[in-house]
Amino acid sequence: MNLKKLNIEGEVALGPMAGVTDRAFREIVKDFGCGLMFTEMVSAKAFYYEDKKTKEIMHIEDFEKPVGLQIFGHEPEIMAHMVENLQDFNHDVLDINMGCPAPKIVKNGDGSALMKDLKLIDAIVKAVVFKSNKPVSVKIRKGFAEVNAVEVAKVIEQAGADFITVHGRTRDQFYAGKADWDIIRDVKKAVSIPVIGNGDIFTLDDAIRMKEHTGVDGLMVARGVQGNPWLIKEINAYFRTGKRIEGPSPEERIRVALKHLELLLKYKGDRRGMMEMRKHAAWYLKGLHGSSKVKDQLNQAVSSEEMIGLMMNFLEDLK
Ligand SMILES: Cc1cc2nc3c(=O)[nH]c(=O)nc-3n(C[C@H](O)[C@H](O)[C@H](O)COP(=O)(O)O)c2cc1C
User: Fold this and answer.
1) Which of 46, 153, 212, 308 could be stapled to 54 by a disulfide with Cβ–Cβ 3.0 to 4.6 Å?
2) Which residue owns the Cα nearest ligand 1 atom 15?
């Protein structure tokens, strides 16, 4: 398998973000022509115990495809059990998380903690590839504390994975400092399966520079898409046609934010939808004249009608 078969070669992928890339977010981003999107990470152990919330996170609609389902864990048997039970599931790629830096994940030996144990990486990838009827990818970092992405990538390739995504930071860096694009280039040179580069693409020019610097097969953007799905459209348009398209007007930003709220309310209900919209609204409104006041008001809104009204009024004031 290669990225060509997924029909996403040369396109930018949406990176998995727990608490962000849910169904509503992906629906918005799909409207902007995103080729490959990833779900929030789901726990293989929680799936084993038939956790209800896990099922909700895993829901994928046909129109979103292709979608990568990202799983995390550290026990090859539990992860293989999950993958075996996904034979008829709606995902297009099965992605293994070896990058999450969160203390509660790392302390269980999951996420980026796996990068410390090459034998375990080999066992997990082999077990998952053996059971998966879909392409398998692995998302790694530059290393845990020590830098070992190249070694890790070789093990992953040998174990049979179809492609690798590299985020150019160590676990110890979390999301701080600058992502190291040299390590992404080094991984790309070291393996023959496709490599997706990730870390610090916030503008079209970042995307162009990352592609030139690393020679990767694909790019992945995560934080840059928060409140800014236009970035996906801009990057894809440039790589397809060489043309730069205009960014959104303030009205356009608010129109999409309102749509995002509508989807969150639909999928998560009034209370949760409103709570979760707060962070998205702050991202959409960032930098707009007078937005700090309306952000405060949105955070105190007691009903979804009030939230919608606040955004509509802000829109009117901008005109
Ligand atoms: C809020 C948040 C949640 C994230 N959740 C995940 C996750 O569930 N799985 C994963 O592999 N990476 C996760 N990441 C990491 C991103 O996918 C990405 O690797 C990282 O943010 C660097 O890319 P960027 O500079 O484009 O944001 C998360 C990042 C953020 C900011």
Assistant:
1) 46
2) 17
